[in-house]
Structure formats: C-alpha cells, structure tokens
Write a structure and sequence with these properties.
single chain, 349 residues, alpha+beta, Serine Threonine Protein Phosphatase 5, Tetratricopeptide repeat, 11 helices, 63% helix
Length: 349
C-alpha cells in the first residue's frame, strides 16, 4: 500500500479524518499568528482559531461516540459508562496524589536530587490534574449529551438528517479555516521581500482572557498613516502587551509585502527614537534618554541629528567629553569629517 493510498483510506474514515482535521486547525491557528494581517477582521479571525479547535475536538468526540466500533472492540461498546467512571476515579487519584507529593517535597530531605524530583512531580501532577479534569469534564458532558439526544430527539429521522448536515457544515467551516491558513502560510513563509517599517501610535489595547489559565489573546488598535488598524498581538514578537502599554506609545511596525501581495506584520516594537523625543520635550536635561535617542539616530544613519543632539547634550553636561569623542569617531567612520571635527572641538574646549 502506497502512502497516497493510506492517506485516501484515512480520509474515508470518520474518526481519523476528524482527528487529522483537528490537528490541522491547531496548526493553522499558529500560522494565523505567525503571518498575521492588519485589520479588525483578522484579529477576530485569530481569536476564533482556538474556538474552532475546540469545535474540532468535539467533532472528534462526536464521531467516536456515534461510529460503529471495529469488530474486536464491539464487546466493549455497551460499557462506555464504566469507562467514564474509571476516568473520574483517575481524577480522584490524581487529586489525592498531588497534595501528598507537595507535602513530601516540603519535607527536609538531605538528598537534593530526590527533593527536586518530588517538586517536579508535584508540579506536573498539578498541571496534569487541571488538564485531565478539563478534558475529561468536557468530553464526559459531551458524551452524556449525545446519549441523551440519541435516546430522544435523534430517534426522529428529520433530526438525524439535520445532525448529519450539521456535521458536514462544521467540517466545511474547519476546512475553510485550514484553507485560509494555507494561503497565509504560502504568502508569508515564501516571502522574499525585505521588511519595511511604518510609524504608528498605540490608540488602545484589549484582550480576551482564555479559560482554565490558558493565557490571553490580545489585539492593539494602532493609529497609522493609513488610519486606524487593529493588529493581533504575539507576545514572543511584540514589545507591547496589556497592562504594560499605554495609549500614545510610539511604535514601529515591521511589515512585509507578502509573496501574494498581501502585506503581513512581522513584529511591533516600541519606537525608541520617537519615545525619547517625547521625553526630551518635557525633560531636555535627561542624559540617559538623550543618549538612547542618539544611539537610535546612529543606527538610522541620521548624522546631522546625531550632531545636533550631541551638541544639546554637551550644553547640559559639558564635562562629558569622552562621550562626544566616541560619537566623533562614529561620525568620522561614516565620512562626516566636518561633524566629527566640530564635536572634537566641543569635547576639548
């Protein structure tokens, strides 16, 4: 049997195909963050990814509960309630083990390796308890609901037809999400364009707290040259997050053109140059802020502004000649000899 034949057989089976689709939805949820697009609609699209993944998991559970099991497993089918009971017992055992391990980890053990192992086991048991309890509770509730429906309304032929139609609609929605994720991945992963940097100002920032301690999904409303745009936030890439950024914060948005001509956002960073300029307007003698600004200007190659701010710095701190000499060296290396000589004269009055 070839790999292609195996794939075709998997796609024809109800449960494995639903499981594959669920894994793809989770994968493309990550893609939606990696190659995000600006726009309020896309922020909603990113937030919807986890909801669709949860829906795909329920689809898998639904198909498991309604699919005729293989011949070797059919004798176990009538005992589904017993398996649910065993799952509840497992949760109870985990509930008992976790405090015992925590207490043992707090005991004065001489062996640091054993103490560390108990601490790790206690922590893992706590995480496992939350995860298993959440999954078990949702799956158990869903199976019980299916059993109730199967014994009542699903006996009606029209309702069964509606349930099959709903199954196909859910699959269609999940496939559409995966298709959109494929386009985003192709547009971003194979994009050879260099980054462009757009100035922006933070207008507002909002977040949705996920259940069961899974974190938050956040998005920011940015004021750009194109108007107001909402962008999904990625903690690993962006320098702003709820509770750590205020409205009016100057930002620099790194944007790529996209292989398909669909611009996507790589990262959002605080614009240190503009932020420093705002601070210096109120506190012109802030030495550290001005040096931060000068460093940003050096990186951008704005040598005239480097000289102007260096001269402003020496007016407030005439004894900081060594700093001016270091800037003069950078100016001379950049071919700005006249500016370098001017700073050297200020450094050696």
């Amino acid at each position: 049997m070839s790999v292609l034949d195996l794939v075709r057989r998997l796609l024809r089976t109800r449960v494995p195909s639903a499981a594959i689709l669920s894994a793809l939805v989770l994968h493309f949820h990550g893609v939606a963050g990696a190659y995000r697009l600006p726009g309020a609609w896309y922020a909603a699209f990113g937030h919807a990814g986890l909801a669709l993944f949860a829906l795909s998991v329920l689809l898998v559970v639904h198909r498991i509960a309604t699919t005729t099991p293989p011949a070797p497993l059919r004798p176990l089918a009538p005992h589904g309630t017993n398996f649910i009971l065993l799952g509840a017992v497992d949760l109870a055992i985990l509930s008992l083990i976790t405090p015992v391990l925590r207490a043992a980890a707090g005991a004065p053990l001489q062996d640091p390796v054993s103490r560390r192992a108990l601490e790790s086991a206690a922590g893992l048991s706590g995480l496992a308890l939350v995860a298993i309890f959440t999954i078990g509770a949702v799956v158990t509730a869903w199976i019980l609901l299916l059993q109730i429906l199967d014994a009542t309304v699903l006996r009606i032929r029209a309702v069964r037809s509606l349930a099959r139609l709903l199954d196909r609609v859910v699959v269609g929605v999940l496939l559409a999400y995966c298709l959109a994720g494929t386009v985003l991945a192709y547009n971003g992963a194979f994009d050879p364009s260099p980054p462009t940097y757009r100035p922006a100002t933070l207008r507002s920032i909002s977040s949705i707290r996920l259940p069961f301690g899974l974190g938050r999904h956040a998005s920011a409303e940015l004021l750009t040259e194109r108007g107001v745009e909402r962008v999904l936030l990625i903690p690993a890439r962006d320098q702003l997050w709820p509770d750590s950024a205020n409205a009016g914060l100057p930002l620099r948005v790194e944007v790529h053109r996209g292989l398909l001509g669909i611009p996507w956002v790589q990262a959002i960073a605080i614009d240190t140059r503009r932020q420093s300029e705002q601070i210096l307007e109120a506190l012109p003698a802030a030495a550290a802020t001005r040096k931060t600004l000068i460093a940003a200007l050096v990186e951008e190659g704005r040598w005239s502004d480097v000289r102007a701010h260096a001269e402003a710095h020496v007016r407030h701190y005439p004894g900081d000649g060594d700093y001016l000499l270091s800037l003069a060296t950078r100016l001379r290396a950049a071919g700005r000899t006249a500016d370098a000589v001017a700073l050297e004269r200020l450094a050696r009055p």
